[in-house]
Automatic annotation (TrEMBL):
Keywords: Oxidoreductase. This is Mannitol dehydrogenase family protein. Its EC number is 1.1.1.-. Residues 282-464 form the Mannitol dehydrogenase C-terminal domain. Pfam families: Mannitol_dh (PF01232), Mannitol_dh_C (PF08125). InterPro entries: 6-PGluconate_DH-like_C_sf, 6PGD_dom2, Mannitol_DH, Mannitol_DH/Oxidoreductase, Mannitol_DH_C, Mannitol_DH_N, NAD(P)-bd_dom_sf. GO terms for molecular function: oxidoreductase activity. Residues 27-274 form the Mannitol dehydrogenase N-terminal domain.
Length: 486
């Protein structure tokens, strides 16, 4: 079998990028070459290139593993995107020009960031990749990659924030204008967060640089959405059946895709709206909606589902009791939101339920369960405080919090890894607690995790505790059934 390397080898029935790939220069440097970026930003960019052309191809940067980098370079940046529903369809995406492994070739990364043609630096690095100090919202200089970058001359940045500052510093020195830095992660006001971290970092190096960035660079916020499970053997087999070529970079995703972008790009941007992106003035309402209704519900079902033995999201939707809780969680979350322009929250919820139940998507609950300490504050705790302010119900958020605690407890003894940057702290807190109230207090006491106001809220504590007691005493299945009957 031949590897996927060139478009001319593909059967004519396969949808391929209909533009002259070699003629389109690079305009975007993207940090974080995961499956999500390949199912989302690279696809919108492919559509924009088809519609309007332009020098907007992507140089992708990997900060850690080099596997995906080597594979994509061997394939000339080409890969297959499978869209799974009742039937699977597919297309080959051509918007990635090349990929660089930052630890192996930092000079090439800096050159790409400093190149005048680079007008956007986009990032998908997940919540933990930012280095946010949970206590202040500013830069956490104890995160190893951030600490290393702050102490270095930035000739080989390890963190995304360090890399952005290094790129901007070089551009300023060369008299080249700044690029737009575009966060595509699940954080509320992700652009504002990124700006704050970049300025914090820059200010510690050079006050003039920080002033220049503040005055000239832009950091639009975006809401990104597409459920993208990890690649499996079946992804590669189905991609091979479609294209007749071996594709080690193939990925699969759902039909739904959404991108709401704050239209603030001083150095230009691709015609992403041609791929369906929605350009708005203020993205915050969309971000909150997605975070609390989609991601928050995901986290709840991931902890409850994983502990109850449900492997995939669709399995949690096939459990009538859990499905009820999933629907209820979305309704509870919707009640914490202000109106979202152009969106009917009830229809949004119905559509989410259909997406979660998609029988063709193998989205592991254990994947979503990862990094709880990074995800719960924005998905669950903020929503709980918002519900309290409105005098609305927060039972489902308390259940989600308890389910996360039961997940942490369940990992003791090595049944599974928690997979969280604070895993060691979580395990040591949970190991010393025998009973539900000890576990609850130990986890609530972790610094910078649960907001002080929530920790001190006796009704919240009792509501979580009553759920946690059932989870630990009678099992997650019984807790789900009890909650559904309430
Ligand atoms: C999920 C998200 O893993 C998770 O935490 O909630 O990756 C989710 O699938 C995406 O945000 C969907 O757009």
């Amino acid at each position: 079998m031949t590897p996927l390397q060139s478009l001319s080898d593909l059967p004519t029935a396969v949808a391929t990028p209909r533009y002259d790939r070699d003629a389109a220069g690079v305009g975007i440097v993207h940090v974080g070459l995961g499956a999500f970026m390949r199912a989302h930003l690279a696809v919108y960019t492919d559509d924009a290139l088809v519609a309007e052309g332009g020098d907007w191809r992507i140089t992708a940067i990997g900060l850690r593993s080099r596997d995906a980098i080597d594979v994509l370079n061997k394939q000339n940046g080409l890969y297959t995107l499978l869209v799974r529903d009742a039937e699977t369809s597919g297309r080959v995406i051509g918007s990635i020009a090349d990929a660089i492994h930052a630890p192996s070739d930092p000079a090439a990364v800096l050159a790409a960031l400093a190149a005048p043609g680079t007008r956007i630096v986009s990032i998908t690095i997940t919540e933990k990749g930012y280095g946010i100090d949970p206590a202040t919202g500013g830069l956490d200089d104890t995160v190893p990659a951030i600490a290393a970058d702050l102490a270095s001359d930035l000739s080989a940045p390890q963190s995304a924030v360090g890399l952005i500052v290094a790129g901007l510093e070089r551009r300023r020195a060369h008299g080249v204008g700044p690029f737009t830095a575009l966060s595509c992660d699940n954080l509320p006001e992700n652009g504002r967060i990124l700006k704050r971290l970049v300025l914090d970092f820059a200010r510690r190096r050079d006050g003039d640089l920080a002033d220049w960035i503040e005055a000239n660079a832009c950091f639009p916020s975006t809401m990104v959405d597409r459920i993208t499970p990890p690649q499996t053997e079946k992804t590669r087999t189905d991609a091979r059946a479609l294209t007749g070529a071996d594709d080690l970079a193939a990925i699969e995703t759902e039909p739904f895709s959404q991108w709401v972008i704050e239209d603030d790009f001083r150095a230009g941007r691709p015609a992403w709206e041609k791929g369906g992106a929605v350009m708005v003035k203020d993205v915050h309402a969309y971000e909150r909606m997605k975070l609390v209704m989609l991601n928050g519900t995901h986290s709840m079902l991931a902890y409850a589902g994983h502990v109850a033995g449900h492997r995939f999201v669709r399995d949690t939707m096939a459990d009538p009791d859990l499905k009820r809780l999933i629907d209820r969680h979305m309704q509870t979350a919707a009640a914490t939101l202000d109106a979202v322009p152009g969106i009917d929250l009830d229809q949004y919820r119905q559509a989410l339920l259909v997406r979660f139940a998609n029988p063709a998507i193998d989205h592991p609950t254990y994947q979503i369960a990862m990094d709880g300490t990074q995800k719960l504050p924005t998905r669950i705790f903020d929503a709980t405080l918002a519900a309290m302010t409105r005098g609305a119900d927060f039972g489902s958020f308390a259940f989600a919090t308890a389910a996360w605690m039961a997940y942490v407890k369940g990992a003791i003894g090595g049944a599974y890894a928690i997979r969280d940057p604070r895993e060691a702290e979580l395990l040591s807190a949970a190991s010393s607690a025998q009973l539900a109230d000890g576990l609850l207090d130990a986890l609530l006491a972790l610094p910078g995790l649960v907001p002080t106001e929530l920790r001190a809220h006796e009704t919240f504590r009792q509501t979580v505790l009553s759920r946690l007691r059932v989870m630990l005493g009678n099992g997650m299945g019984a807790a789900i059934a009890k909650e559904a009957a309430a």
